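Request: Could I get any protein with tokenized structure?
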Amino acid sequence: MRQDPDVIMVGETRDAETASISIRAAVTGHLVLSTLHTNDAASTIVRLVDIGAEPYMLSSALVGVVAQRLMRKICPYCSRPEPLTERQIEFVGHDIPNSRKGTGCGQCHGSGYLGRTAIHEVLVVDKHMRKMITSGAEAEDMKQYAIKEQNMVTLKQAAISLVEQGITSFEELERVAYYDD
């Protein structure tokens, strides 16, 4: 801080002391980037409060939260169409006629996957979200606000899109978005 940086990268926020220092740096005009292990963007805010961040300070310091996951990509050499089961259709909410699955080949070393791609969920902290943070709103309420008012694409929605495009499999969707409603 004494070197007056414009951007500060904190490896991981694991405790109240780290959160407090990061928040103080952010409210004094520094861009602070950090990582935190949570299931989605909205639960990051609740987790920061749980580890000791003051909601009024957090609401002033936070600009946005990005949740991300890596998904394996289906091998283009051995992938084959595979219809979804009724249970899978229920999980997705609709049928995906071009769902694919890798069968395994020499190119992918028998795994059915070759490479990875990222999915993201971006929660923007606007004026209303700041009020929600200060008042101690639940993660689900913040998530629903971001979906409805900010058109936030959830991790599950991003993963479904990749399945629809034939980039990844339903199994990867389940692995990455198993907790999401």
